[in-house]
Amino acid sequence: MKLASMIDHTILNQKQAKSRWKQYAGRQEYGFASVCVNSSYVPLCAELLRDTEVKVCTVIGFPLGAMSTAAKAAEARQAILDGAEELDMVIHI
Q1: Is residue 87 within 8 Å of residue 76, measured between CB atoms?
Q2: Are 60 and 87 in contact (CB under 8 A)?
Q3: How far apart are CA 72 and CA 59, in angstroms?
């Protein structure tokens, strides 16, 4: 098993241009397990990675996890509808 296949390649910076997101999602040739992005970028990454084995991951409740359970559930449902295959949920400590 290649090390890359155990890594979620993550970019949670909102200041990236669309061309950078395409480059980022295009790194699927390295065989990462997933790319983890903010939920607003899930549809774009799902489209870019459609015919690959790389999963689209998103964060729910990021960065503080301080919203209600109902809000997190709604965000999770929408992320799945948008193409996310993996969810990383932030708990409220």
Answers
A1: yes
A2: yes
A3: 10
| Residue that the structure tokens 């983890």 belong to | 36
Does residue 12 contact residue 38 with C-beta atoms inside 8 Å? yes
Among 86, 73, 72, 74, which Cα is nearest to 37's? 86
**Pair 57, 12: CB distance under 8 Å:** no
Classified as helix, coil or strand, 79 is helix
Cα(68)–Cα(30) distance, integer angstroms: 37
CA 44 to each of CA 41, 66, 79: distance values in angstroms, whole numbers, following the listed order = 5, 26, 12
C-alpha to C-alpha distance for 34 and 5, rounded to whole angstroms: 8
- Write out pLDDT tens, residues 35-67: 898 999 899 889 988 888 889 999 999 999 999
Decide: helix, strand or coil at residue 71.
helix
